[in-house]
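Field reference: "sequence" (input) and "structure" (output). Example, Citrate synthase:
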Amino acid sequence: MSDTAILNYDGKKYELPVVTGTENEHGLDVSKLRKDTGLVTLDYGYLNTGSTKSAITYVNGEKGILRYRGYSIEDLAEKATFPETAWLLIYGELPNQEQLSHFRTLLTENALLHENLLHFFREMPPGAHPMGILSSVVNAVGLFTPRFYDDENIASAFELTTAGLISKIRTIAAFAYKASIGEPFVYPEAERSYCSNFLNMMFSSKTRPYHPDPIMEKALNTLLIVHADHEQNCSTSTVRMVGSSQANLYASICAGICALWGPLHGGANQAVLETLLRIQQSGMTIEQVMAKAKDKNDPFRLSGFGHRVYKSYDPRAKVLKKLMYQVFEREHVHDPLLDVAIKLEEAALKDDYFVERKLYPNVDFYSGILYRAMGIPTNMLTVMFAIGRLPGWIAHWKEMHDDPQSKINRPRQIYTGKTERAWIDRDKR
């Protein structure tokens, strides 16, 4: 394949370099296009635009492949812990025993919030969405944290900040939930694992001790891992965009949380669960649901199928489907929503409309049911997504700041407004 592409424009020829990635992906380098030709590219939603080179996550939507730093999502989900995965994403390699022990110590030591921050939770409006609380408190945490003052301290300060954010985000999430139901906060405990600590802070109380089931700890660990990163998605691109201005890590992560909040992004898992509940409560048959989903004039939307990148079965959905059976078989419980989900998937995989459009189950399709089995409220599902995605956001923020070629992001546009107009005095309008 040629290492350049030729653009013919206005009687001239311009050479555009072809960039090749390690997985043989190809892209046109148009970084000098405007300077050389006066042209910009117009790409609605950036569907064909590569904003950066990245060594963090590889996604192949056609083949259903997802790898973090070269490791398959299947292997990581089965063998890794969430702290191990976080270290891998941020620092590029799996931690050795000493590094992992050090990281776990930092997570334990930095789980507490400054006591003054507790007022945030108590003064928030009743019914405030947990994502709004999460973004607000994460940004506020930065106000209580020393800044990076000199080059010598940047590495250690970043390590401490990273561990603090990954540890504190679960405390913030659990405190937001406790505040919403009017219960006292449950503080993190040093002897517990990352996932056990979160579940204990969520569901334990003085009158109702909670003992996390190992299968639920495993399920939470897996859910966090499969959500940990997914290349240049909306929220990750937002973190990079904000971080490119040299905004600090807290402000950048806060922006990412707000981007994730949207129903077309992280809010999709909540939408799936609400859709399954609506189907189950309405008494509609699967045939009726499928017909409504395919009717362009029907406002009904079947959430959980299809993905912007994957044109085959989402590998994360495969992992979660397998996990879901393990959880329900171990717990000997039955959720009617699981029956609805399985029947919907079976119908979709046989339906020409869905098959032709490559609308396979995505990661959101089964995650909500698993969180529901743990007792996680529906309005907390996107918060759970944020907890998992945090290491990926941090990794991308770090990669961008470590890259000497990084610049402040500044997309261009094609102006379609009015041309120059004369001022009209108020009495003549």
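Residues 204 and 210 are 5 Å apart (CA to CA).
DSSP finds 18 helices and six strands in the chain.
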